[in-house]
Design a protein that fits this description.
two-stranded parallel ribbon, about 50% helix, about 160 residues, mainly alpha, 4 strands, two-stranded antiparallel ribbon, single chain
Length: about 160
Amino acid sequence: YLVAVDSAQLGMPEVTLPVVPGMEGCHWSLRKAGTNASKMIELLMTGRPVKAPAAAGWLIDYAGSLDDAIQKVWLIASGGNHGLAERKLEEGALAVPDVKVPPASNQFMADGRKAILDCVKASCAVPVSQALEIQAKHSAGFMLTKACQKGAIGSTFKKVMKV
């Protein structure tokens, strides 16, 4: 279960750099989003954060005040009646909703968004047991492109990748 306080903002800001989200960002969250997959894809495409209450049910399981969140976590951890429905993980291949890549301010950003969408589609097209390897290949391949090495991430690329 994922529990957040109401004031939390959640997202994947790394997609604005542009880079392909690391680890399981491109498939795990979609496998738990259920019928809200299009919201998750929008988050991945734009990098715009979402406030915790608006993310409940597709990105997180509960949002509340700090006191309520702590009580909810305690009920979950202790096996109490927490009232949350478990969001099931889709372990098989997952159909990704057909989405258009949003317009970008420059070609590097457009290339980054296309790389993310390609990664989402490829890593969701296989069972979860194969998805991380596919996502890692997409991410590694993207790091070698000019879209990753130039544009918004260009100066950071030199600091991070050429250490």
